[in-house]
Amino acid sequence: MIDRTKKEPAAMKITPQRLAILEYLEGRKTHPSASDIYKAVSERYPMMSVATVYNTLEVLRQTGQVRELVIDPEKKRFDPNMKPHHHLICLRCKEITDVHRDFKLTLLENERCNYEIIGNHVDFYGICPKCQKKRTVR
Ligand code: ZN
Ligand code: MN
Fold first, then answer.
1. pLDDT confidence of 122, banded at 50, 70, 90?
2. From ligand 1's centre to the CA of 68, what distance in Å?
3. What predicted TM-score, i.e. pTM, was given to this entire model?
4. Which ligand is nearest to the CA of 82?
């Protein structure tokens, strides 16, 4: 059963705040957290509330316009790039960089556990150039 009482009206209502968040996310290559988004957007829209940012992100997630990343469990990050891609993640500053390459990863018959495979995602962990520089200065 689909519960239409809550989600759909909210998803369709286009408010200036919601537009501002969409504009901020559109084409963005960084992977901002909700508080990053709030900080940036509330500069232009002082009426913006943290709750609006969270609610909007939830609607965008449910409607497939943004992906929620669970890299840092204490600080969810959001990815507006819905094309299949992988990530480079800095372990120091938690910067996330897109990697666009099809690694042609496959599972053998006996590894697949009878799953119908839909996709995959690879995270590369490391130290970004900025953090490497900081390390040599110290
Ligand atoms: Zn870094
Ligand atoms: Mn990404």
1. very high
2. 20
3. 0.79
4. 2
Which ligand sits closest to the CA of 95? 1
Tell me the DSSP string of the chain: ---TTTHHHHHH---HHHHHHHHHHTT--S--BHHHHHHHHHHH-TT--HHHHHHHHHHHHHTTSSEEE-SSTTS-EEE---SS-EEEEETTT--EEEE---------GGGTTT--------EEEE--HHHHHHHHH-
Sorting pLDDT into bands at 50, 70 and 90, what band is 138? low
| 8-60 residue pLDDT tens | 455 556 778 788 999 999 989 999 999 999 999 999 888 889 999 999 999 99
Residues with CB under 5 A from ligand 1 (ion): 90, 92-93, 95, 128, 131
What distance in angstroms lies between residue 36's CA and the mean position of ligand 1's atoms?
Answer: 17
Q: How far is the CA of 122 from the centre of ligand 2 (A)?
A: 11
pLDDT number for residue 24? 94
Query: For the chain, which domains are there?
Result: 16-79 (1.10.10.10), 86-137 (3.30.1490)
Ligand found nearest the CA of 84: 2
